[in-house]
Structures are given as structure tokens and as C-alpha cells.
Specification:
Blueprint (H helix, E strand, L loop, with lengths): L16 H38 L19 H4 L24 H4 L14
Length: 119
Amino acid sequence: MGRSALRIGQPLAGGTKAESNQRLQIGLFGLGSMVLLIGLATIIGNQADLTQESSVPQAAPTTEPTEAATQRDPLADAGIVPLPVEAPDEAQGASVVEDLPDSAMDGAGASAPENTPNP
């Protein structure tokens, strides 16, 4: 048999009694520290709840209210103003596109429009 074979009386986990005591101590210390951390978090949460309940719902502002600043238009300050938009007149060639009847829409996607180039 090779060196990896188990000897009679040797523990399966490996190590001596001192090593197993050390592992036990580390495990218990870890569990204890988790309990302490959870307790501390609970205390902090409870204190936050008490503070929230005892606080004034709508505290008074710490500064005096001032008038809202009006928005400035730098172009108007410089003397540049946009031209008024004119409505299109019938004489200028405004065209109205009429809706197609439903029967004309049946073949709408069958061919490409005439004014678009073919790929």
C-alpha cells in the first residue's frame, strides 16, 4: 500500500486533538460574533425607529423663503428676438393630402414608391 493509505487509529478528518479543539473554538467564536452583530443591528434599527417616530413630520425650513428667480432670456437681453411664425396661406401653395380609400390600402405594401431609388 502507498503512503495515502489510512492507518489504524488515525482520525479521518486529520489532525490531533489540539487541532480539533482549535477548530471548535474558531467555530464558536464565529457564531458568537454573528449573534453580537445581529444584536447590534437590532439595537441600531430600534433606535432609528424611535427617532423617526419622535421627529417632527414637517420640520420648519432653516432658511427664509425668497422669491423665485425669473428665467432670463439672454437672446432677448441682447436685442435678438425671433420672427413671428406666419400661418401658410392658400396662395403660397399649401397642399392638402386626402386620405386613401380602404380599397387602395390593400395593395399599399406591394411595390416601392416611384420616387425612391432601388437598392
